[in-house]
Amino acid sequence: MKLFTKAIETKLIDNHNKHKTAWNDEHPTNIDSKVVCKLFNPTGLGTWYLTEYNPETKTAFGLAVLHEKEFGYIDMPELLEFKGLMGLGIERDLYFPMNKKTLEECREE
Question: In terms of C-beta density within 10 A (0-12 exposed, 13-18 middle, 19 or more buried), how is residue 66 classed?
Answer without folding.
Answer: exposed
